[in-house]
């Protein structure tokens, strides 16, 4: 009976307020500059969140500048929201300079946060319970009189409700009477559990008529679950941040809340119907601009979210994806990954060959076994093929007799030089051969750039079609800890021809040699793939 009851309370639609730029920016080590804030705003608007809470005018000049700058852009889906506290104690709202700055930010919507836990009023704010209610009432009333819509954020609501329910509810009613358009229950300390949130929301909605919202922090690891339970109890407005970034352990993660609402609960949460498919790229953008390494284990958008490693899984997922995937990876803009590894069987390699190169090969063929043996030997030397599909496939192609060298590096040399520590320059020469020999030079800031340029110049003679290959990403890693010898480095390079992406890897004590090897393999892979595709095209009637 409980499940039926839950289903009855659930709204059809939920409004999403993203606060990455305000609450998320309070995360340790995160600071977005103006350009980053604009880029994130546009990405959020594109996926179609209802509200973007973007800053606290009056708290810092950067946020004021942002609200000026963002006016130049036309947002298609989202409303901008400025954030502020209630007026200061013992002062008129119209005289509070911070509220003036908030109005100057010129947004239609404003979030006002106020205290709803009596202990915070008396011990932190150091004022009377009555004056706190006045501060909330006056602030909201004043902003409403100035033509703004107000989201009231009841700080520490769940803790307040547990300790002094009467007062916590009085705070909400005061905000409602002053004209607040949304009443948000915040779990500011993040300590609540899902069943508590459900019960509290069920009770609160007996007292409050305005749409209820939730603002959940993740200190008990339940921010997402708490948000969903609050929605099941009838809340229709949720606060989230991209990747869950925020103070301490962060906020409810947009990248998990939104797909759960839309894909699992049948609740519309984005204004753009195609928005969900941009989730992975939104997540990556925010990691990049926040300077935080992405979490590969993040649900839906993490690099491992649809990665299959163990051989049995791979076999099954190729037969029917539903066997090991809870939703299709494309639904959130992610992709299935099949990793070749020590754990896996030949099924992984065979599936790669089929997916990437269109080659049908049986996993019992001796060439597959030989290729796997070589891959495992390389893994023991510190290689990792989890991302570098192209390098693993080149080994398979070689064992199948399909690699046939288009060119080969005969000789290379790099010189790096600088006068002080800020003006380095590098020069390189590369000699290629494919019957004839070509020697070319290149210049760059770093040695890898110099050698890439020399290599490409020589390649224009040997394989001009390689000119459309671009270097997208270059990373240097230490090989897996247990396996690397002191000075080995592992290089990983990602390439694209504008349509597809592929990654190669190489390990060496010499970082330049490793880079050159991965560069050469990346171009070789592209040339072979083109040849195979053309061949298949010819064979198709
Ligand atoms: Zn918060």
Automatic annotation (TrEMBL):
<keyword id="KW-0412">Isoleucine biosynthesis</keyword>
<keyword id="KW-0028">Amino-acid biosynthesis</keyword>
<dbReference type="InterPro" id="IPR005675">
    <property type="entry name" value="Citramal_synthase"/>
</dbReference>
<dbReference type="GO" id="GO:0009097">
    <property type="term" value="P:isoleucine biosynthetic process"/>
</dbReference>
<dbReference type="Pfam" id="PF00682">
    <property type="entry name" value="HMGL-like"/>
</dbReference>
<keyword id="KW-0808">Transferase</keyword>
<dbReference type="GO" id="GO:0043714">
    <property type="term" value="F:(R)-citramalate synthase activity"/>
</dbReference>
<dbReference type="InterPro" id="IPR036230">
    <property type="entry name" value="LeuA_allosteric_dom_sf"/>
</dbReference>
<dbReference type="InterPro" id="IPR013785">
    <property type="entry name" value="Aldolase_TIM"/>
</dbReference>
<feature type="domain" description="Pyruvate carboxyltransferase">
    <location>
        <begin position="14"/>
        <end position="277"/>
    </location>
</feature>
<dbReference type="InterPro" id="IPR002034">
    <property type="entry name" value="AIPM/Hcit_synth_CS"/>
</dbReference>
<comment type="similarity">
    <text>Belongs to the alpha-IPM synthase/homocitrate synthase family.</text>
</comment>
<dbReference type="InterPro" id="IPR013709">
    <property type="entry name" value="2-isopropylmalate_synth_dimer"/>
</dbReference>
<dbReference type="InterPro" id="IPR000891">
    <property type="entry name" value="PYR_CT"/>
</dbReference>
<dbReference type="Pfam" id="PF08502">
    <property type="entry name" value="LeuA_dimer"/>
</dbReference>
<dbReference type="GO" id="GO:0009098">
    <property type="term" value="P:L-leucine biosynthetic process"/>
</dbReference>
<dbReference type="Pfam" id="PF22617">
    <property type="entry name" value="HCS_D2"/>
</dbReference>
<dbReference type="InterPro" id="IPR054691">
    <property type="entry name" value="LeuA/HCS_post-cat"/>
</dbReference>
<dbReference type="GO" id="GO:0003852">
    <property type="term" value="F:2-isopropylmalate synthase activity"/>
</dbReference>
<keyword id="KW-0100">Branched-chain amino acid biosynthesis</keyword>
<protein>
    <recommendedName>
        <fullName>Citramalate synthase</fullName>
        <ecNumber>2.3.3.21</ecNumber>
    </recommendedName>
</protein>
<comment type="pathway">
    <text>Amino-acid biosynthesis; L-isoleucine biosynthesis; 2-oxobutanoate from pyruvate: step 1/3.</text>
</comment>
């Amino acid at each position: 009976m409980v499940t039926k009851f839950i289903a009855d309370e659930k709204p059809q639609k939920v409004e999403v307020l993203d606060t990455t730029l305000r609450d998320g920016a309070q995360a340790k080590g995160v600071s977005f500059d103006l350009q980053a804030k604009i880029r994130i705003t546009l990405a959020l608007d594109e996926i179609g969140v209802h509200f973007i809470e973007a800053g606290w005018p009056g708290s810092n000049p950067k946020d004021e500048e942002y609200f000026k700058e963002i006016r130049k852009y036309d947002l298609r889906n989202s409303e901008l929201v400025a954030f502020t506290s209630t007026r200061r104690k013992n002062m008129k709202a119209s005289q509070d300079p911070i509220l003036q700055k908030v109005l100057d930010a010129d947004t239609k919507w404003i979030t006002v946060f106020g205290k709803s836990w009596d202990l915070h009023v008396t011990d932190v704010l150091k004022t009377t319970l009555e004056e706190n209610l006045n501060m909330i009432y006056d602030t909201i009333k004043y902003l409403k009189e100035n033509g703004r819509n107000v989201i009231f954020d009841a700080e520490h609501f769940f803790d307040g409700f547990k300790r002094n329910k009467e007062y916590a509810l009085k705070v909400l009613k005061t905000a409602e009477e002053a004209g607040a358009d949304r009443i948000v229950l915040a779990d500011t300390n993040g300590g609540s559990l899902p069943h508590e949130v459900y019960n509290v929301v069920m009770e609160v909605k007996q007292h409050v008529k305005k749409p209820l919202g939730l603002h959940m922090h993740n200190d008990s690891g339940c921010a997402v679950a708490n948000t969903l339970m609050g929605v099941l109890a009838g809340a229709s407005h949720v606060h989230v941040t991209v990747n869950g970034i925020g103070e301490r352990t962060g906020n409810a993660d947009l990248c998990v809340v939104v797909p759960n609402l839309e894909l699992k609960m049948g609740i519309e949460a984005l204004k753009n119907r195609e928005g969900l498919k941009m989730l992975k790229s939104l997540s990556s953008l925010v990691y990049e601009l926040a300077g935080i390494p992405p979490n590969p284990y993040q649900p839906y958008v993490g690099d491992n979210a649809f990665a299959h490693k163990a051989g049995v899984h791979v076999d099954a997922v190729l037969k029917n994806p539903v066997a090991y995937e809870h939703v299709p990876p494309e639904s959130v803009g992610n992709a299935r990954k099949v990793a070749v590894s020590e754990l896996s069987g030949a099924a992984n390699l065979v599936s790669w060959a089929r997916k990437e190169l269109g080659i049908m090969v049986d996993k019992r063929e001796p060439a597959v076994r030989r290729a796997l043996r070589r891959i495992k030997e390389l893994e023991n030397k510190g290689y990792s093929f989890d991302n570098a599909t192209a390098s693993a496939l080149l080994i398979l192609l070689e064992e199948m007799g399909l690699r046939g060298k288009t060119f080969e590096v005969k000789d290379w040399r790099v010189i790096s030089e600088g006068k002080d520590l800020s003006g380095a320059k590098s020069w390189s020469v590369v000699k290629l051969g494919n019957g004839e020999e070509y020697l070319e030079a290149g210049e760059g800031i770093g040695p890898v750039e110099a050698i890439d340029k020399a290599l490409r110049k020589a390649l224009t003679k040997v394989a001009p079609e390689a000119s459309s290959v671009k270097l997208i990403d270059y990373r240097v890693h230490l090989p897996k800890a247990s396996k690397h010898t002191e000075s080995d480095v592992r290089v990983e390079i990602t390439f694209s021809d504008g349509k597809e992406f592929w990654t190669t890897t190489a390990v060496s004590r010499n970082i330049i040699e490793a880079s050159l090897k991965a560069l050469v393999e990346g171009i070789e892979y592209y040339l072979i793939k083109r040849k195979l595709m053309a061949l298949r095209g010819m064979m198709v009637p």
